[in-house]
């Protein structure tokens, strides 16, 4: 029986460039060692994403006419490098009257929505080529909203991919909340899934346990309802936070001063907690299976931790952060490549 290969992608705004750089290396190695036309979407059985990670997940799971992966990860990298400035642009006047997003959302959603519509069009969630989990949070119902592409086939819970990506990207203080409508007509009021699962790897693990993969993928070599020893999980972050907060300063900032730090801390801390939990789960396995969980989260080096810093110099620094990680971790990344090849059906 082959393993279920799971890819989990963190949120992080423009820092998703780091994720794309690492995935590009993995895809290039698949092309060298397996087949020249290899695309990531054909090698993973299940992909989960929050915010910017959900956008990348949706790109690599777009179908071509044969229901295979349509896009190389290079398409994602081009989208960030070419459209990032457009999506995250804030005019001088907006900076002047709305510093730091204190009075309304920091960035207009119009450019984001236009680019999502241009890229995904009327593609539906159920049309993605593999099971996919995307996170968001319903502010009216006060509960997590998890978009699940394989369940979209079985129920009324189907949506346009562009709307799902807009919902999971609605990070408070950056973009406004959004109301989206399912294909069945049900309305949801949503914000960024990174608020509770910026690292969605544990959500992916829990969801994968319930999926009858042999049936969904129409392949008897894959197990239904896999246990942890049936999984390979690759979890990719958007860079380790390096910003610290002075104890003396934070003692006196008050509620407004805590807005940005609390979001920053919540998102990075929940990512670290998920990594700890999955490490402990995999440590219960035998020695060989213990090595089937990978957490990849490069140092930001000279790159800004801000999710909306689209200066040319920062984009280059994000690219370099990804490249530096690859240079220092080729052995691990090459192990992942070989496992993906071995477990592809």
What are the main properties of this structure?
eight-stranded mixed sheet; alpha/beta; globular; 12% strand; 345 residues
Describe the structure.
By secondary structure, the protein is of the alpha/beta class. It is built from 15 helices and 8 strands. The chain has helices at 16-33, 52-60, 73-87, 92-97, 110-120, 149-152, 161-168, 194-197, 201-208, 213-216, 247-250, 254-283, 287-290, 312-328, 330-343; strands at 4-9, 46-49, 132-138, 143-148, 178-181, 187-192, 231-236, 293-296. Strands 1, 2, 3, 4, 5, 6, 7 and 8 form an 8-stranded mixed β-sheet that branches. Strand 5 (178-181) and strand 6 form a beta hairpin. The radius of gyration is 19 Å and the shape is globular.
- From the alpha carbons, calculate the radius of gyration and give it in angstroms: 19 Å
The average pLDDT value, as a whole number, equals: 88
Give the SSE order as H and E letters. EHEHHHHEEHHEEHHHEHHHEHH
The amount of helix comes to: 40-55%
Number of helices: 15
Low-confidence stretches: 90-107
**Major sheet description:** 8 strands, mixed
Structural class by sheet pairing and helices: alpha/beta
Q: How many beta strands in the DSSP annotation?
A: 8
Protein name: Patatin-like phospholipase family protein
Domain PNPLA: 7-205
Family: Belongs to the patatin family.
GO molecular function: monoacylglycerol lipase activity; phospholipase activity
Summarize the structure.
The protein contains 15 helices and eight strands. The protein has helices at residues 16-33, 52-60, 73-87, 92-97, 110-120, 149-152, 161-168, 194-197, 201-208, 213-216, 247-250, 254-283, 287-290, 312-328, 330-343, and strands at 4-9, 46-49, 132-138, 143-148, 178-181, 187-192, 231-236, 293-296. 44% of the residues are buried.
